[in-house]
Amino acid sequence: MFRNNYDNDVITFSPQGRIFQVEYAQEAVKQGSAVVGIVSKSHAVLVALKRNAEDLSSYQKKIIPVDTHLGLALAGLASDARVLSNFMKRQALSSKMTYGRPIPVERLVTQIGDRAQMNTQQYSNRPYGVGLLVAGVDATGPHLFEFSPTGMTQEMLACAIGARSQMARTYLERQLDDFAACGRDELVVHGIKALKETLSQDKELTIENCSIGIVGISAGDGKRKIEGFKLYDGADVAPLLEKALEGEGRTEGAEEGAQAEGAGSGESMQVDS
Q: What are phi and psi of 182, to 5 degrees?
């Protein structure tokens, strides 16, 4: 992508009907590290790959709890995600204070979509350079929504965004029929396996570079009870990783020997900034 006469602002269409600044924002999402979301009849799961700018820095936060019943995972500019997440937190708090109940997930996602779309209509603004996966639960059950810089939002059964996410989407498409009946632990396993597909050959998932967010509904005593959004980070991720990757360690040794004789490692990743 390169500079041209039609990308000086966000309100000018090119002769082909394109808005280049919006396309540049979508490109920023593709440069961010991958995040995966999956939803079943009982739970919604977010799995994210974290990056660090250098060996001396900490890893970038990729999953942000918004309210007790929902959270989001980001790919792209983390600073833009922080602005949107703060807006979502204010809207969630406003709903509790005004109506005495948590805000429905679809309504909140629609509000950030409207906010982002306004930025594509005003000369003084620019599109948000971040994509979001929003997972939450409300009276209608668990939900997973995708948000893009264009302001478009859509509910998904499973989704992956970010760098090398096409390989994760391929995995999700193959397993799509199984997700609806999956429980909490099975969804986490699928999410981790899908995220693993996005890694280059010299990378692996560890407790430092992986985050997991889970929200859902549990059935007990004949009543549906909401399980609040819970973020697993650091050492909390270890049991989930071990369970998802169980059995793969026995085959990785042989695979590494074959890979060492092949081509070099895959493309290096850019850092979410």
A: -75, 145
* Per-residue model confidence as pLDDT tens digits over 219-260: 766 678 889 999 999 999 999 999 998 866 533 433 443 343
Ordered DSSP codes for 37-60: EEE-SSEEEEEEE---SSTTSPPP
Q: Where are the alpha helices (DSSP H) in the chain?
A: 20-31, 78-99, 105-118, 165-179, 184-196, 238-244, 249-261
- Only one residue has tokens 């989001």, namely 72
- CB 72, CB 233: distance < 8 Å: no
Grouping H, G, I as helix, E, B as strand and the rest as coil, residue 11 is: coil
User: What is the CA angle 219-187-45, rounded to 5?
Assistant: 85
* pLDDT tens track for 114-173: 999 999 999 989 999 999 999 999 999 999 999 999 999 999 999 999 999 999 999 999
Q: Name the one residue in this structure whose structure tokens are 């998932």.
A: 205
- Nearest CA to 147 among 131, 158, 159? 131
Taking residue 250's Cβ as centre, other Cβ atoms within 10 Å add up to 8
CA distance 85 to 81: 6
pLDDT tier for residue 4 given thresholds of 50, 70 and 90: confident
Distances (CA, A) of 40 to 4, 74, 123, 146: 45, 21, 41, 16
Whether the CB-CB separation of 45 and 244 falls below 8 Å is answered with no
pTM exceeds 0.85? yes
